[in-house]
User: Fold this.
Amino acid sequence: MSVQILLEHINVPGIENLEVYRKKGGYSSVEKALKHSSPGDIVEEVKKSGLRGRGGAGFPTGMKWSFLAKPEGVPRYLVCNADESEPGTFKDRHLMSHLPHLLIEGMIVSSYALGAENSYIYVRGEMMPVIRILQKAIAEAYAAGLLGKNILNSGYNLDLHVHPGGGAYICGEETALIESLEGKRGNPRIKPPFPAISGLYNCPTVVNNVETIAVTPWIVNNGGEAYSKIGIGKSTGTKLISASGHINKPGIYELEMGLPVEEFIYSDAYCGGIKNGKKLKAVVAGGSSVPILPAHLILKTLAGEPRLMSYESLSDGGFVSGTMLGSGGFIVYDEDSCIVRNTWNFTRFYHHESCGQCSPCREGTGWMEKVLHRMEYGHGKMSDIDLLVDVSKKIEGNTICPLGDAAAWPVASAIRHFRDEFEWHVREPKLALERNYGISQEHLIPA
Amino acid sequence: MEKSIQAPFSDTLVQKINELKTHFPEGKEKSALLPALHFAQAEYGWLSPETMDQVAEIIGIKPIEVYEVATFYTMFHLKPVGKYVLEVCRTSPCCLNGAENIIQHLCKKLNIEIGETSSDGLFTVKTVECLAACGMAPVLQIGPDYTYYENLTEEKVDHLLADLAQGK
Assistant:
């Protein structure tokens, strides 16, 4: 197991309690930050660390922080994005369930660095059990003087609240999240202005993912330079990977950036290989929104280099032969998986989750779902394959927020890499149905 | 669990919503809406127009501002549901591990279609999108506590239904 920055103490009994957490060195960064560093010092350390946003986009966190406007007399806000909903991703729920105080500690030092005195953790509503854990931990932190007025006699005040969502994937998009936190429908805003200038209540706001915030105590304690030495190239530090699908050991793994994908899939320290001794067919490496790759392209780049778990290596080859690290939602498909069925499943998800604001996304996701459904159930036409590519291209880049792109990419990449299988579904609907459902379903096939 | 839809909110519920309003700056109390709706739904089982009107009044916003939000988010039930709402994940990672069989099994066992409520009024089956538990697939959760039940098998589902029916 590689260096553990986030999960080092996750198996310590009672680590969700303040007392145990402090015995393991918890909240030392708050003391260090509030008593010995200026907010600007911390922003500089985070810049030096090379830390990139862990929610999916991978934007440099220090840079995002330095964009925050600081007009006189206007409050600034830090909002933690805990609306984890990207299919294949379950790392934040894991982290918050077991290490609530790590997130709270991160929120304190990050809020101090940004000059925020009122911060929110926006947790997706389905995670009520996590919300209860966080609320208990926040109450403990208030009682210990780590939150509230004049924290540790530093003169710094911070109020921290947990806020539940209502069940909407789109609220993981930062401007939709802000709208939702204001008590509205989660319709993304047009950017610019970016939240750093005009966010929550039109005040300067930073929205950061749970994992991003949870790294900041380590950076405060050890320095940005130490963090930047972990990992590979511009992918510094460690990353939480949520591993699921047809593998022997699904779960959350913290790994140093740069680990070979092959080792991650087959080593017993990580996924432990494909279930039931089957062969690997495909991987979605960074949550459902990133392009799916067939086995040979996820293990090696087109140039034959071993593919690594890093932002750069996974995107090597662009969308022709590469993908993205995204949120680290790593879904593994064995040789028996149906790519058409999986693509239909993803498209149904995006259709369901489209906020409906932009026509290309609202209508296009529905069309793609319908066409894929008829293909999966034996009614497909050969022209449907190009129709799907065409619709996906008309969505991509033509919407206010990235949900449109996220809906288009899985479809376009599945057809790019598995066109044969789509054609086979059209040519041999009976065989395809038999393979997927184990029985003849001739009644589903057009006369 | 369910009360008459006209019943005025209990003092406790009113207090809980008023406390939520203090989380936000003055004039921004509308921010309390989502958690307030969760509180109301936990008490009444679902959100009737009358319930939403009371939430609007306590927060100090127009009823339409509540309706437009309640209809956007999938967690809010806008018609009566069973005592236990079984929300089963139907997204890819769960389906790779048998979620479709679990959904079929549940519906067959309760003799209902997805979205319907069993004749005894105990169970409603809904399918939902990814619950962020893909490594523990297949998974379902049950409100109002939203407890997760992971690594489901047909046997586990049978036990769960039996336990719930007995009020365990």
Notes: Chain B has a mean pLDDT of 94. The interface with chain A takes residues 23, 25, 28, 30-35, 37-38, 59, 61, 65, 68-69, 72-76, 87, 90-93, 95-97, 128-137, 141, 143, 145-148 of chain B (CB under 8 Å). The two ends of chain B are 15 Å apart (CA to CA). The first strand of chain B starts at residue 84 and ends at 89.
